[in-house]
Specification:
Layout: H1 3-6, H2 11-27, H3 33-40, H4 44-56, E1 60-61, E2 70-71, E3 81-90, E4 93-96, E5 104-107, E6 121-128, E7 143-147, E8 157-162, E9 165-171, E10 179-181, E11 189-191, E12 198-208, E13 214-215
Parallel strand pairs: 3-6
Antiparallel strand pairs: 1-2, 3-4, 3-5, 5-13, 6-7, 7-12, 8-9, 8-12, 9-10, 10-11
Helix pairs in contact: 2-4, 3-4
Length: about 220
């Protein structure tokens, strides 16, 4: 049996493995914990924990903390899937082409661990941005992956229509009403009134740098 089937990775571990494989192939050396953390927008401690789990499951060997580790099992690209590009984000405002794909990208997702159907996945490309125009970290050229019919909870980034207008929001409910934040600041919050009509179309799956996804 294939070792990756014996020891399936979590989604975050798979993304770290994909990142370090891409880095080593490009620069011919191992990235430091800080370099991986910066590229993944996570803490160095989170990267260190992921590397320890990769070592435990036999994907790397050596000591992650000393930067003396090396890859034993390279990220298996066929584990990913093709996802359609369905639109753009201009300064935080989504523009979607519902019946027309603008192309495809390859996402490093472990299909056997994915909850939902692959048809529910799509990405939007960040075309422009202003300061505080996004409720998440994203730069021009990044691709942001969403999943339809995915459960959302407080803190989730969602694509939703509010009174018929499509927007990208952070769902931040209070005790008495839902609040949709269009930027990172609290002041960007839009309280949903009882007479408002809003509908969640999709929930953020994960953001990827343009260098971490393969355009097809």
């Amino acid at each position: 049996m294939n070792e990756t089937k014996k020891n399936p990775l979590t989604e975050s571990q798979a993304r770290v493995l994909y990142e370090i494989c891409q880095y080593v192939r490009t620069y011919k050396k191992q990235p430091t914990l800080d370099e991986i953390a910066k590229r993944k927008n996570v803490s160095a401690n989170a990267v260190c924990y992921a590397l320890k789990q990769l070592k435990k499951n036999g994907y790397i060997k050596g000591e992650p903390n000393s930067n003396s580790w090396e890859i034993v099992k390279w990220f298996d690209e066929p584990m990913g899937c093709r996802v359609p590009i369905m639109g753009y984000l201009y300064n935080g405002e989504p523009v979607m082409y519902r019946n027309q794909s603008l192309g495809e990208v390859w996402l490093p997702i472990q299909i056997e661990r994915f909850k939902g159907t692959l048809d529910d996945l799509f990405v939007l490309c960040v075309k422009s941005r202003r300061a505080d125009s996004f409720p998440l970290r994203a730069e021009v050229g990044d691709l942001v992956a969403f999943q339809r019919h995915k459960h959302y909870c407080p803190g989730s980034i969602i694509l939703a229509t509010l009174n018929g207008r499509l927007g990208l929001f952070k769902y931040s409910p209070s005790r008495t009403q839902a609040i949709l934040r269009k930027g990172k600041s609290v002041q960007s919050g839009v309280p949903v009134r009882s007479q408002d009509e809003w509908n969640v179309l999709a929930t953020l799956l994960m953001p990827f740098s343009k260098s971490k996804m393969q355009l097809l």
